[in-house]
Design a protein that fits this description.
Elements (H helix, E strand, L loop, with lengths): L5 E2 L6 H22 L4 H9 L5 H12 L8 E5 L9 E4 L4 E5 H4 L1
Parallel strand pairs: 1-2, 2-4
Antiparallel strand pairs: 3-4
Length: about 100
């Protein structure tokens, strides 16, 4: 399945690119393993309670299990100044996660 969409990685040096690639791969592996965990729903309920749409949760579980990351937002590398010193930020208006270049490096 598709990997996540990254923008701005050309601004990272090679060690930072390798670190980011490794962190992304490890994170996706954890989500994929969670998608096949027999206690998936129990763990979700423990953390978020039982007020959720079971059909949507099952779709999420399946996307984890089948490594379908097409629904994830775009991740964009920006300078810390552009993020007002934050390590990361999310903009719902354009469905993007902004990661600080300085934080990654």
């Amino acid at each position: 399945m598709a990997k996540i969409h990254l923008v701005g990685t050309e601004f990272l040096d090679i060690p930072a690119q390798l670190a980011l690639d490794g962190a992304i791969e490890q994170s996706l592996d954890i989500l994929a393993a969670f998608g096949v965990d027999e206690q998936f729903e129990q763990k979700i309920t423990e953390v978020f309670g039982d007020r959720f749409d079971a059909e949507k949760l099952e779709k999420l579980r399946q996307s984890f299990a089948f490594r379908d990351w097409s629904w994830l937002p775009t991740f964009e590398i920006r300078s810390a100044d552009e993020l007002n010193g934050a390590n990361a930020a999310f903009a719902a208006s354009n469905n993007r996660v902004y990661l600080s270049q300085d934080f990654i490096s």
